[in-house]
Amino acid sequence: MTPDLPTRLTAKVRAAAHPGGAECACAAGTLAHRSDVTVVRHADTVAKAHAPDTAPTDLALRLATAARLPDILLAPLSETPAYLDDRLVTLWPYGTPVDPDVPDAAPWEAAAVLLAGLHRAPVPAASAPPVMRGPLKAAHAVARLRTAVTRHAHPAAQPVLGAWAALPAWARAEAPMPGPAALSHGDLHLGQLVRHPAPYGPWRLIDVDDLGTGVPAWDLARPAAWYACGLLPPDEWTRFLTAYRAAGGPAVPAHGDPWPALDVPARALTAQTAARALTKALTVGRPLDEVERALVDGCARMVSVPAQLAPGSPA
Fold first, then answer.
1. How far is CA 19 from the centre of its chain?
2. pTM of this prediction?
């Protein structure tokens, strides 16, 4: 992680917000700073430094897709990424994020409708984005867990790794995803929605880093996994699924049991999320909390249930 990256990125976004270099008292700050991403804001402009291994051609295609679907995805201020030293940087309009302190206001229906629109959108052959990166991100999370347990053994690792090993090869990023492919976000959670224009505009999906063509059910898998593990209330899951179906989302059948389509992606997201949680706990030497334990327990049940996740009950 570059220690001064937020400072240099802040200078870049300020220059973009005020091309003439005028003095200001605008709202500004660092929104995220990790080894793989740094995001800063100045006034109504946001700059994002993408992961060091981001391919410029792939990112440009993803930006073009967002620009083509501004009613679904937040459109970038430019479709051409720039470099800040060795990091690709993109500029975006600021949007108001979901408030995590008001869970009753979680925009499940809006997220579902946006996903349905994304999954139905045509994919132009000449400018199709690359493959959706969801399975690859899950594989990276499990690989980090394997590294962590070589240093700090933990009994929770066995069910997580067992659940992962039981998945088909495509869900572990070891084989091509099955078709038919659709535009897919690749990392859907409520933190990937903002209101634009801020603060009361319509909801839009953000973060194109994993966007691409693939199995659309992957985008429903995180809420499905949380529901199956008992972490998402049934009424919230029902709101999400019902809105997705009503909007014509193709990832699940319009009627009947959705779990044959959701089973593998939900299992993969359960294993991925549990792997991340356990890796973080091992890194700082703390016990698993209640939510993290529920995810590990879900993995343990997955190992013992070779068929689909049982709808309406823990995994």
1. 32
2. 0.93
* E strands, 12-101, in order: 28-33, 38-42, 45-49, 82-84, 87-93, 96-97
Q: Is 107 exposed, middle or buried (0-12, 13-18, 19+ CB in 10 A)?
A: middle
Q: Are 287 and 281 in contact (CB under 8 A)?
A: yes
Which domains does the chain possess?
5-93 (3.30.200), 103-304 (3.90.1200.10)
Confidence grade of residue 306 (pLDDT, cut at 50, 70, 90): low
Judge whether 218 and 132 are in contact, CB under 8 Å. Answer: yes
Evaluate whether 240 touches 108 at the Cβ level (below 8 Å).
yes
Residues 40-69 have pLDDT tens digits of 999 999 999 999 999 999 999 999 999 999
Distance CA 213, CA 200 (A): 30
Q: Which long-range contacts (CB under 8 A, 24 or more apart) does 259-264 make?
A: 259/308, 259/309, 259/310, 259/311, 260/308, 261/217, 262/217, 262/220, 262/221, 262/224, 262/309, 263/307, 263/308, 263/309, 264/167, 264/168, 264/171, 264/217
